[in-house]
Amino acid sequence: MKIEDLLDGSNAIVEATCDYCGEKYTTTWKQYTNLKKTVNKKDCCKRTACKVARMKETMLLKYGVENARQLPYVNEKIK
After folding, report:
1. I need a surface site. Which of 6, 40, 71, 72 has the fewest CB within 10 A?
2. pLDDT tens, residue by residue, 25-34
């Protein structure tokens, strides 16, 4: 089946390439399309290093910091 023929909610297995390490991995088309709708539109495999790198990029894009503890209002809530 062609990618163009898949619906966004399809559970068909597709092969994607991680934008962080370059490894190929499999995921469902539904997960792949949902990932592209987020703030950080990069693909990420299941490796911890790749997930951490994606999380840091997303935090930078949304909040301007790499870690939530760098936000003053988060530290105030924790006290």
Report:
1. 72
2. 999 999 999 9
